[in-house]
Amino acid sequence: MSEALIVLDPAADKSLQQQIRERLIQGILSGSIPAGHKMPSSRRMAEQLGVARNTVVLAYQQLVDDGFLVTRERSGFYVSETVSQQGVISHNAGEPQRDEDDRQFWRAHCNPVSVSRRALQNRPANWLQYPYPFVSNEYDPRLYPSAEWRECTRDIFTAREVAQWATLGNNEDDRHLVEQICTRLLPRRGIYVDPGQILLTSGMEQACYLLGELLLGSQRKLALVQPAGGETGEIFRRTGAQILPLSQDADGPLLDDAFQAAHSIYLQPNVHNPTAVTTSLERRRQLLRQAREQQAVVIENDCDHDFCYHGNPLPPLKSMDGGSSVIYLYQFPKIIDPGMQLAFVVAPKPVIQRLRALRYTLRERVPALNQRLLAKFVAAGHLDAALFKLTQQLKERWTALGEALMYHLPKLKVRRASCGTACWLELPPHVDGAQLQTSAEQNGLLLETVGDGSAVRLGFSAIDADKIEGGVRVLAQLINGELQAEEESLDVASGRRLSAEDLQREMPGAIFLGTNTLGESYRIELKPDGTMLGYSRNDVEMDETDTGRWWLDGDQWVRQWRTWSYGRKASFYVVTDGHRIKWFNETGKLIDAAIIANE
Hints:
- It is a single chain.
- This protein is α+β, with helices and mostly antiparallel strands.
- It has 18 helices and 26 strands.
């Protein structure tokens, strides 16, 4: 029974021992492995799973130490009775409730929640293994300064350091980190403030939420450039404020009627997300003068200020004449602190005091450990070094993307700011953005449609510079109609049909990435010994795994999953076309296509 519950993935980040332990705990807690059940011997379990016996022995011993298993002399390992007596096990875990009355009950009690459709669009699992991941707001993990973080982590766990950050009050900010922000980060932007003018937040979203609660309401108006990236607009809208759409041109937001009617204006002058517009210096002066005349508050999101590839970045609004009415927001780059996502607010002391009181009511302060860790990282000079290295890498990709777009798509309007990590590409009128996105993914290219689908956003922070031209070439072919998304048959399929010899040479060890008809991303790995590992993720981020067998029958590739596809055997003719692989059934009909992954 217990062996059937375990599916191991040798390519996973977790060790085999840890995977065995977690699967057995899951089975015990769900009741699939009942209390008092005799576990298979370590030798038998190891043979069933294809692992070393010592791996199973260590996993069993950990479960004994944790109280899930007990040993009986000369008898073996058994599931502990005490786990069941503690009421942990739910024998109905495999029978989800589908009571319509219960659903109606919760519908009556829950308020409606508005979330943008873009926020619900999940990227495929293993997106980094796609040939051309032009995804935005993601970074190549190879650029992450892991060695520097390990050094800082060791430093903050000395007895002296722990005594400082572990005793931090419930609503205090780490003075060491605030000091680094005041003395190292802000002066480079021309901003000089006291520690009492800074508040740390758990990301940009919390900063916007707190400002919305403080500044907005049903009687207030907020001007916001459209389209707006992320959930900023939705966060402000939930305060009950009226959102006024701001227009912009190549120099930035326009001083139109919406601007002049607003009580607060939210701006991204450095590089607007998602349109990649940088507000010119003269337009910044005009915006500040107009805001001062109408007594409006300016909320400045200084995103991607650290990444400048041409000349020097323009000064933030907060540092300019008239910046006293500006509330400044900054978030540390995701590649620097992907797990923390720490941001801060710069504002006059009365504003910070009120924001701190609001933050206290949420009981959601940035963990003290994270604050001290980031303070050490900045103080040691690691932030400066990492940003310099990262900027050089991104500049190479920024240059490659610009050259590729000019060569392959010279007639389209492209907006590429001298800062940021993505560019804006306006599509021809006859091209549907949603269909283009689907066709691009089928060809191994991931991109993001924005607005009404008339434009796409191409991120370059997660793709190697030497792959950018190939990806833009595929995009140009799709836009120009050279690659057709319509179904093809085996007789006219583009690419190379694999013979028996080709299959024997290329299939063992292959990894495929794709999306099924339900919109679920999947990953399939073919082991040289004829076994298969399958992984899929659905729209609610629930993972599913399966195992199976594959073999060759002449010039056909045959596979059979344990549970997927009803566990039925299926035979296919195989065609490869560059980094794509296509499977055709015996009648020559295209059944599926996927991407040959890069490990």
